[in-house]
Amino acid sequence: MAIEKLALSHSDFHTRGGVQYIGITDFSDIIDASSSDYASSLFTNTAGNHAVSLQQASTGDDVVFHLFEAKQGTASFTQTGSKDGSTIMYEQTLTFFAPNVKDDSLSAIEKLGNEQLCVVFLTYANEAANPDVTKAFVMGVSEKYKDSSDHCNAKHYARLSSVEVSTGAALGDDNGVTVTLTCTSGELVRSTIASEIAIDSSAGTLTIAKA
Hints:
Shape: globular
Number of domains: 1
Radius of gyration: 19 Å
Structural class: mainly beta
Order of helices and strands: EEEEEEHEHEEEEEE
Largest sheet: 7 strands, antiparallel
Helix content: under 10%
Distance between the termini: 59 Å
């Protein structure tokens, strides 16, 4: 019996879902105050490139994010756009689950409070699609509708919007904290491609090296 060739390429398969790594820092930490042209060179808008550079100039510092590593199936990102006249705005939502209700995680989440956040996240599909390229997506950094005194529109930074703490009731129920971060953006979510994104699980950091 002949076995027919299955003419399927990688693009024919459903892309692996879920968010794997999440990095959170204060919005002010991504701005290199010593570089006058940093804000103007932050964004790249060319064909096939909808990116934002979070690499500070050589006079700046590495950008260090607090790292959360999510179990597959417990973190996701969604973005919904709505148009009013000629203006379209997007609501971005990142939700993740921190297992086990315990003091250190509750304390860390509470510190987010009303902070102005910049968030980067890597999906599981990222490493499957191209393991040689580290690409993260960025929340809380928007180019549109900024003015001369507004670094990449700080009005659109990410915020902690909800926290749900649950121990569960049955033995098989989830015990942990569900965290939701949201922001409003004038554009679709951007990616960032750094020369090196270093993830240190033991130290709990995600670092983007300065340019």
